Amino acid sequence: MLDFRHETFLALCRIRSYTKTAEALHLTQPAVTQHIKALEAHYGNRLFTYADKTLTLTEHGELLYQFASTVASDSDTLAEILRRKSLSDPPLQFGATLSIGQYIMPDILAQILRKKPDTPVSMLVENTHHLLDKLNQGEIQFALIEGLFDKTAYHSELFAMEPFIAVCSKNSFLADHPRSFQELIQNNLIVREQGSGTREIFEHLLQKHNLSVTSFSKVTEIGNMEAIKQLVRNDLGITFLYQAAAKSELAQGEMKRIKITDSDTYHGLNFVFLKNSQHAADFLEWFRTFKEYYSGNHR
Question: Core-most of 76, 80, 111, 256, by most CB within 10 Å?
Fold first, then answer.
């Protein structure tokens, strides 16, 4: 467990304001300052710099943040386990980005609920940024992430390589034969909002072809994948998504995959948890279980 000064340090790292941190912790601002100065004296190095009205972690502060975040998360995980009457089925609390949580995890969770019926399960579905925040704050044990993130800051394992494809209505001529990106940008693009993992991956794909979202003749932004698929089914535009997200529609012939002549993209889905966690062995066991169930569903 961390002492009160480290807890103050973690709160200041998240909030980046002495005044607001004091309010959040119900302390005075001088008390927050005293806690930070005590840690800096203990470790013999500055933990923060303040310039242009911005509070920034030093390299030593970054290192302490990674360590303290892991210890705090491990402590919360252990406390949750110890509160259980039985230690045989510890709770499972994790996060997943939207495409994974909505289209990949249901089949995996179904098998977990059948084979481990006494295991309490909680899955948070959020974007990559929010999940990493929850991970750092110890609110989830690990996360399955489709978006881009700093792999040097976390322990990550490749969970799957999922096809990232273009799709159109069954009535669209675009599926008749392979198309180039130059042909596709003449169409209405229906795309997720900025900040979503799917949008981020798509933008990186476009950059490889010296294109951007604005290269398309028309762009429609929708914050819900089911709504996007409905519009595509009605032949009102095309979209790019993980194949798993369109599995049902493709199987039923409601949508068709557009074969692209200059692109065959797979993107890695990652299993992520805090570095040096004392519960790493348990998390990796869940990783192997998830991967086994996922592989069984994709044979």
Answer: 256
How much is the pLDDT for 86? Answer: 57
Closest residue by Cα to residue 225 from 128, 97, 132, 93: 97
* pTM of the predicted structure, to 2 decimals: 0.70
Q: Does domain 89-160+268-297 have CATH number 3.40.190.10?
A: yes
Beta strands in 149-202 (DSSP E): 154-169, 188-191
- Euclidean distance between the first and the last CA atom of the chain, given in angstroms as a whole number: 44
CA 216 and chain centroid, separation? 27
Rounded to 5°, angle at Cα 203 from 259 and 180: 30
Pairing mode of beta strands 121-125, 92-96? parallel
> Is 161-267 the same fold as 89-160+268-297?
yes
Position 45, amino acid: N
User: Which SS3 state, helix, strand or coil, does residue 239 take?
Assistant: strand
The per-residue pLDDT for range 21-73, each reduced to its tens digit, is 999 999 999 999 999 998 989 889 999 998 888 899 999 998 898 888 888 87
CA-to-CA distance for 280 and 216, rounded, in angstroms? 44
